[in-house]
Design goal:
two-stranded antiparallel sheet, mainly alpha, 2 strands
């Protein structure tokens, strides 16, 4: 993870071993979680809708970010450069994809537009282009090489040298990160406020049908309102640690570094649970379980059957909105 490279200086060998273990363990969980979402998208044709396609690219970015964070420094030369650039590139792409999901939800729910699929080429240009620019800019003021040596083994590539490198790192990673957090927060706030107004209007009109639909929307959106907190929780410790390191570069706070590395590495897992394990994915999984022989299904909890039947009447909010407006 991009944050690991900045926390290893002035730490003992034992502390570096701990940070390496924390990063590897948390990144592995994120790799498994995001990889599961990618696998679901590739295996289940019914999930290949535009709304979930954005989740697929988010999970793909998380998966590659976690992978390059785990592999560390494969060797000197080209592979060292590739590992450093790739980690930064896919970590930036990850939180940028969350802004495209927020934009899609806002345009569909608040502005009642059904043209979000037309924005897909623009989304790719925005995410991959911005990630590339931020990754290239980060090379300014940095000395590419091995960082985090433990014995004879180098843990990561690409270290910042001096205040210039640290300032560039903050500008190319944490500035767009907190911009994405601000955008997501404002967007979800507007969406939830609009649905709250719709709920009050339905109650005032005593329209039970509208009340039922709006309450279903609100139930689905309750968790969407917490999505900006994923980025905040994942990167708050890292932001504080970067600021502290810039002010006092010779004094590392070990416990802060542990939370910095661990929470940042878990971002992929948090995203896969929040964005990926929605009703559409669960329904697809439950339907496959129903196809298993009875001798195997009886080992699963009985409530899976009722859940499978319930999921037949549910669908992801964004997909529903898009389809309804097309008719």
């Amino acid at each position: 993870m991009a944050t690991v490279q900045a926390v290893l200086g002035n730490l003992s060998v034992e502390e570096r071993h701990v940070l390496t273990a924390v990063n590897t363990g948390a990144s592995t969980l994120s790799l498994l979680g995001s990889g599961f979402i990618v696998l679901c998208y590739l295996c289940f044709k019914e999930l290949r809708k535009f709304s979930f396609k954005l989740v697929f690219f988010l999970a793909l970015s998380d998966m590659l970010c976690s992978f390059f964070s785990i592999v560390g420094d494969p060797s000197k030369g080209f592979f060292c450069y590739a590992q450093g650039y790739s980690t930064h590139f896919f970590c930036v792409a990850s939180f940028l994809w969350t802004t495209t999901i927020a934009f899609t939800l806002h345009r569909t729910v608040v502005r009642h537009k059904a043209d979000v699929e037309d924005f897909e080429p623009m989304f790719h240009l925005y995410v991959w282009g911005t990630s590339l620019v931020m990754t290239v800019l980060r090379s300014i003021g940095n000395e590419h090489g091995h960082v985090g040596h433990i014995g004879r083994v180098a843990a990561w590539c690409w270290t910042e040298t001096g205040r210039t490198g640290k300032a560039v790192h903050f500008f190319t990673f944490y500035t767009p990160l907190w911009g994405a957090i601000l955008f997501n927060g404002i967007t979800y706030f507007q969406v939830i406020r609009m649905l709250n107004n719709a709920t009050r209007m339905a109650v005032g009109m005593s329209d039970r049908g509208s009340q039922s639909d709006t309450r279903a929307d609100m139930k689905a959106l309750n968790r969407w309102g917490y999505y900006p907190l994923i980025l905040i929780g994942s990167w708050s410790f890292g932001t504080v640690n970067r600021i502290h390191d810039f002010i006092e570069p010779d004094h590392k706070i070990f416990w802060l570094s542990v939370f910095d590395v661990g929470m940042a590495a878990l971002m992929g897992l948090f995203n896969s649970i929040a964005y990926g394990l929605n009703s559409s994915v669960r329904r697809a999984i439950y339907e496959r379980l129903d196809l298993l022989p009875e001798s195997i299904r009886r080992w699963f909890p009985k409530k899976l059957k009722s859940r499978s039947q319930q999921q037949q009447h549910e669908s992801e909010l964004v997909s529903l909105r898009i389809e309804d407006q097309r008719q």
